[in-house]
Design a protein that fits this description.
With about 290 residues, the chain is α/β, with parallel strands linked by helices. The protein contains 8 helices and 14 strands.
């Protein structure tokens, strides 16, 4: 092979490599542009996430304010509230100069959390519930029209599957709330209990089969509802609390006496569920709110 031919081959090879390099540089440049665009969409840290995606959203309070005289389980005494210190003299029982109160109430007061130990000795008390269980996907199953027709209505597996037909399977770890609009009767204790002439309460609840499906098939973390109990009034009047006992036996928690579920979507919101941390506590009033997309 002559030197001229070799030189020509080398030049051709170099030109091919240069073309490949140019193509690679173009591809690298394109990928870098795409990377910058993606990085602009993904928060760099949780503060960025908060300011971009959380703060602009609607926040809905799902909690009743509490005081003496509010609806509660009839086996519990009313709460007590005393002003110990007031801004001016002769109001507080202990002094003045600032505002401080004494509260005395059962753990199951107002919108509240029932931990497993509420029904089952040896299971988690309220201070032992993981904080990771306090921020969850919120599923709202709306049966309020059925409850309008029948106050003894219990949420069924069919109601759950109807929801899933619209939105897909309930996500693992979700908080599932039953919307009945029963909270619109608050704070009237008589209306909340809805007793007939024989003293039988008539308010909605869950069915045991629905709870089996939620916890054993969909593996949800917690449930919530608007009435005072998990079980329907026709059962609690007779001392039957099978549904509540079942939920808590799984070492899961529930929230009772929710409100404003008509202001959150059935799908897509996040719920924040918090409460104080009494050591070994059997329950406590909760502050619950939703962040709505």
């Amino acid at each position: 092979m002559t030197y001229g031919k070799k030189i020509k081959e080398y030049k051709t090879t170099i030109e091919n490599y240069e073309t490949q390099v140019s193509d690679l540089q173009s591809e690298i440049s394109r990928l870098e542009d795409e990377l910058k665009e993606l990085e602009g969409k993904v928060p760099a840290d949780l503060w960025d996430l908060y300011f971009k995606y959380i703060k602009p959203k609607k926040f809905v309070d799902l909690t009743h304010s509490f005081r003496p005289g509010i609806p509660h389980w009839p086996g519990f005494p009313d709460s007590k509230r005393e002003i110990l210190y007031w801004y001016e003299p002769d109001v507080g029982t202990m002094g003045y100069g600032f505002f401080a109160e004494y509260f005395c109430h059962v753990g199951q007061w107002g919108t509240h959390c029932d931990p497993p130990a509420h029904f089952h000795e040896g299971l988690m008390t309220i201070d032992e519930i993981p904080v990771e269980w306090m921020v969850l996907p919120l599923v709202v199953i709306d049966v309020h029209e059925k409850v309008e027709e029948n106050p003894d209505y219990v949420l069924t597996v069919d109601d759950i599957k109807e929801w899933e037909a619209k939105y897909g399977p309930i996500p693992e770890g979700a908080f599932v709330a039953m919307r009945t609009d029963w909270s619109k009767r608050w704070p009237n204790m008589t209306a909340m209990r809805n007793e007939d002439a024989q003293g039988v309460a008539h308010y909605p609840g869950w069915s045991l089969s629905a709870l089996h499906y939620l916890f054993e098939v969909r593996h949800v973390t917690a449930i919530g509802h608007e009435p005072t109990d998990t079980d329907p009034g026709i059962n609690t009047t007779r001392g039957i609390y099978d549904c509540e006992s079942y939920v808590l036996s799984l070492n899961k928690y529930q929230i009772e006496l929710l409100t404003n579920l008509d202001q959150v979507p059935e799908y897509g919101a996040i719920v924040i569920v918090t409460w104080p941390k009494p050591e070994g506590g059997s329950g406590f009033p909760a502050r619950v709110f939703a962040i709505v997309p």
